[in-house]
Amino acid sequence: MKIAADRLVELVTKIFQQVGCSDPEASCIAEHLVKANLSGHDSHGVIRVWFYLEWVREGKLFPGRAFVPDIDTDVLTAGDGQLGFGLWVGAQATAIGIEKCKRIGTALVAVRNSGHMGRIGHYAEQAADQGIVSLHFANTSGLAMVVLPSGAMDPRMSINPIVIGVPMVDEDPVVLDIAAAATVEGKLKVARNRGHSVAEGLIVDAQGNPTTDPNDFYGPPRGGILPFGEHKGSGLSIMAELLAGALTGGGCSAEGKTQLEQGLFSIFIDPQQLETSDYFLPEVKRYVDFVRSARPKQTSGEVLVPGQIESRNRRQRLQDGIELDEQTWQQLIEAGQSVGMQVGEFTAD
Question: What class has domain 1-61+321-349?
Answer without folding.
Answer: mainly alpha
